[in-house]
Each structure stands twice: as structure tokens, then as C-alpha cells.
Write a structure and sequence with these properties.
The strands form 4 sheets. This protein has a two-stranded antiparallel ribbon with strand order 1-3. The chain is mostly helical and about 500 residues long. About 45% of the residues lie in helices and about 5% in strands. α14 (about 420-430) packs antiparallel against α15. The radius of gyration is 22 Å and the shape is globular. The protein is built from 17 helices and 8 strands.
């Protein structure tokens, strides 16, 4: 069934997203194909929604925005870094072309428009589709807000060639829409006759717990980056309390965090599905070494090597700065499942990432671990961050210790002032969530909150004044006269 759904989703995506919605906000399309006549029966909505989830997977698998600008990675044998890693970003080099995000948003807008008056034989099916679509639209806009800040706010369905050209709306206004979508999603989901907070019909689609995790994430960003303050921090705490009662639990063995597929993983709230036969490799493909470049390694059996460059690119390794977060805790249970250092007869060499080791098949190792988007340890550390933000460091340390104790490093015993606790939470997120595509966003939040100076914390930002948001691609600007460039470019 999963394979059938995958092929349906790809067909839907390829057919629809390159029609009128693909040109939303940029230029008038002269395509005569529209989605207006697609929805003929209630059975048409589910595959369309499934197709829209492929965008979520695509964004979750893109480390340009969530990882590369952070301090986590340095080159291994074959560097694959973009301008984001060097922090030398310009409107013509390394800038964002946001068409794919608005293709995804366009899908959501159209589905919501077409489904609202469409009769369903099973009302719960309609409600579930509506709830998931609102959550997806919130996720897509949240992704954009973190990347470019102010963003065009497009909410109408495009059913013909009359595509509006819109200016960028202030990030705070986009965030209001994000919150409205999340709240609507929760309300609609709770109205299902079969609703249960602890139900996860699929860990690869939005459910109550993962929607609350998204809400907490957006509230933390709003609080610290958009000056939402204590109101948003308290809202994040409440959302995470809902997550904690949604039937999830920490894995006892940290190996299982990424080692188990999300469908059988008690800790995972939401993940992007990967498997060799359906979706190919995820971003960890760039981190896996291939046999030729680790020739002679004394600890070959402990390295996550592929047979050839077809299975791994050997491009990323963990940075010294990220490894240093573990220095005080040499017995941290997470270390073997975070990185392993190659040992040669001449000495130590590259520290290869083991966070997403993929699967070793008879012919090749393939990076087919599910990409985790939200898991319980992540949101528990969010809760610690929110408590620290409102200066309740006692509760913050309690939440922090839940994650530390699973890692076997014991309770936090350092200073209990707000600044020290916040720095420890940031460090703990660096240990716990290494290479999970969250670090850049974490650093921006803690920078805006005053915990660190990101321009001295990240080696490649030292001496630079590169804005924290990305510029818009020159093509995007040229096609829409109502847009203005991101501030600072």
C-alpha cells in the first residue's frame, strides 16, 4: 500500500504543482491546464493530499536551510557545501527561489477551496483531510518565515490563469496566519467522532501530537524572533504538555531514535518516509563514506561505509565545535550513534557521522532512514527553553534532565541563572539533535534571545555581516515588481 500511495503522490505532484500554482506570486502563467476540474468525487481529495505531503518530505530533506549555516559540519573527503555554509550569500548566489513553497501552499489553498462544499459519505474523512491540510499550510509558511522572514501571504485558490502578484507581508502577519491554521487544524481534528489525542494513524502525516509540536515550535520562534514574549512562551509550554499526553515516550536505547522506522518508533511524532525501493536516499547520503576513501581503516567494521559513491558521498563530517559539546561527557550514550572517528595506522582521521547510518543491503548501503521532523526529546528541550525564557529555571532544568538522563550524563548541576541554563539547553540540543536539520534555527532563536552572539559562535560568520535570512533570487524579484529584497542584501 505504501508503494501505491507513493506512486499516486508523485503522479499528483508532477501533474498539478507545475500548473498554475507553480507560477503563483511570480509571473502570469500561460498554461491552459488547471486543477479546477480535477475534484470530481470525494475519492479525489485523499491522493491530492498525499501528493502534497511530498513537498513536506522535500523540505525536511533539505539541509541548506536548517543545517549548513550552523557550526555542525565541516568537509570530509568530498565537500558538497553551498554558499550557505560559507556564509557568502548574495541575490545571485545561494539565494532562495521560493516557487516550490508556493506550489505546496497553492495545493493547500486549492484543496481547501474545493473541499469546503463537497459532500462526503463519511464526514470524518472530510474533517481529517481539512485538518491535515491546514497543518501542512502552516508548516510550509513556517518554513518560509524562518528562511526569508517577510513573505507573500497567498491564501486564495488559483483555478485559472489569473495569478495575483503579491508583496511580502510582515513576518508577524504571516505568523498570525500560521497560528490560525494550526488552531483550525486542532479544532477540526477534535471534532472527529473517532478523535483521540493519543492516536497516530500515521507518523508520516500530521496527527494531534505532531500538530501540537508544530504549534510549540512556531510559538518559540514567535516569542524569541518576532518579539512575542512570555505569552508565546507560555503557549509553547501548554502545547508541549499536550504532546506529552499524546501517547509517545522516549526510546530507552538512543540507537533506536533513528534506527527504528517512525511507524514503530515510540519517540517520533512526525517523520518523512524513506525506503530504498520508493524514495531513494535522504540527505545523510552525503555523510556516508565509501570504501575507497577509508582504505586501511583499523576500525572499518565500526564505520558506516558504502561500497561506492553510489551509496555515500563522504562529503560531511562532524565539526570539532560540535564534538566539543560532548567533551565533558565521554560516556554519553549518544556518541556512538552520532559519530565515529576513523582510525588509521598513522593516527586518527575523519570523524564520520553515524546519526543516520542507513541500511546495509547485500549490494550497497542506502541512506533510507526516516528523516525525523519532531520527536519527544526535541519538544522536551523546547519546553525547557520556554520555561527558561519566562525565568522559571527550576522547571527548565527538570525538563532538561529528562533528556540528559536518557543519555546517561546525569542531572545538570551547573549555575541556575537564566543565561547559564539557556546556554546549557542550547548545548544539549546540539548533542541530542545533531544532524537532525534543526541547528541553524536553534542558533537563530538563541541569538535573538540573547544567549549567544551568532556572529562569533559560528566560525564561518566571524567577521561577516551576512543577514540571518536568505535573499530572494534575482529571478523571483524580476518577475514580481511588488517584491522588495530581504533587508541587508
Amino acid at each position: 500500500m505504501k508503494r501505491i500511495l507513493f506512486f499516486i503522490s508523485m503522479t499528483i505532484s508532477l501533474f498539478f504543482v507545475f500548473t498554475s500554482c507553480s507560477k503563483t506570486l511570480d509571473i502570469k502563467t500561460d498554461s491552459s491546464i488547471t486543477d479546477a476540474n480535477y475534484f470530481k468525487s470525494e475519492g479525489d481529495f485523499e491522493p491530492y493530499l498525499t501528493g502534497t505531503y511530498t513537498f513536506m518530505r522535500s523540505f525536511a530533506n533539505n539541509v541548506t536551510f536548517g543545517t549548513e549555516r550552523s557550526e555542525e559540519l565541516i568537509a570530509a573527503s568530498n565537500a558538497r557545501f553551498t554558499e550557505s555554509w560559507t556564509q557568502i550569500i548574495t541575490p545571485s548566489s545561494g539565494a532562495i527561489n521560493y516557487n516550490q513553497w508556493y506550489q505546496a501552499i497553492g495545493n493547500c489553498n486549492l484543496l481547501l477551496e474545493k473541499i469546503k462544499d463537497f459532500p462526503f459519505s463519511v464526514p470524518d474523512n472530510k474533517k481529517r483531510i481539512i485538518a491535515e491540510t491546514h497543518a501542512l499550510r502552516a508548516y510550509f509558511y513556517f518554513s518560509l518565515v524562518r528562511i526569508i522572514g517577510d513573505a507573500p501571504l497567498m491564501l486564495q485558490a488559483i483555478t485559472n490563469d489569473n495569478v495575483p502578484l503579491l508583496p511580502r507581508s510582515p513576518a508577524v502577519d504571516v505568523m498570525k496566519q500560521i497560528q490560525a491554521d494550526i488552531d483550525t487544524s486542532i479544532i477540526v481534528l477534535k471534532s472527529l467522532s473517532t478523535y483521540a489525542a493519543s492516536t497516530y494513524p500515521s507518523k508520516y502525516r500530521f496527527a494531534y501530537g505532531s500538530i501540537q509540536a508544530l504549534k510549540a515550535d512556531t510559538k518559540l520562534w514567535s516569542a524569541k524572533v518576532l518579539a512575542g514574549g512570555n505569552t508565546d512562551l507560555n503557549a509553547a509550554i501548554l502545547a508541549i504538555t499536550e504532546v506529552e499526553s499524546s501517547g509517545v515516550s522516549l526510546n530507552t536505547n538512543f540507537k533506536n531514535v533513528t534506527g527504528l522506522k517512525a511507524s514503530a518508533n515510540s519517540e517520533v511524532l512526525l517523520a518523512a518516509y524513506y525506503t530504498r525501493d520508493e524514495t531513494g536516499a535522504n540527505y545523510a547520503y552525503n555523510a556516508l563514506p565509501f570504501l575507497a576513501i577509508i582504505s586501511g581503516a583499523l576500525n572499518l567494521d565500526s564505520l558506516p561505509w558504502a561500497n561506492s559513491a553510489a551509496g555515500g558521498q563522504g562529503a560531511y563530517q562532524i565539526s570539532a565545535k560540535s564534538k566539543a559539546l560532548f567533551d565533558a561527557y565521554p560516556n554519553d550514550k549518544r556518541i556512538p550513534f552520532t559519530w565515529v572517528t576513523e582510525r588509521q595506522s598513522s593516527g586518527f582521521k575523519i570523524s564520520w557521522i553515524t546519526k543516520y547510518p542507513g541500511t546495509k543491503y547485500s549490494d550497497e548501503r542506502i541512506s533510507d532512514n526516516d528523516i525525523i521532523m519532531y520527536r519527544l526529546a526535541d519538544v522536551q528541550l523546547m519546553k525547557a527553553e520556554a520555561y527558561a525564557g519566562i525565568n522559571n529555571t527550576v522547571s527548565a532544568i527538570t525538563e532538561l534532565n529528562k533528556v540528559r538522563n536518557r543519555a546517561g550524563i546525569g542531572d545538570y548541576t551547573g549555575p541556575s541563572d537564566k543565561g547559564s541554563v539557556e546556554k546549557e539547553i542550547l548545548d544539549e540540543r546540539g548533542r541530542e539533535l545533531f544532524f537532525e536539520n534543526k541547528r541553524w534555527y536553534d542558533l537563530v532563536r538563541f541569538h535573538k534571545g540573547g544567549t549567544i552572539n551568532i556572529y562569533t559562535y559560528i566560525p564561518n560568520l566571524v567577521g561577516k555581516t551576512t543577514p540571518l535570512h536568505w535573499p530572494l533570487n534575482t529571478t523571483v524579484l524580476a518577475n514580481n515588481s511588488k517584491l522588495v529584497q530581504t533587508q541587508g542584501y
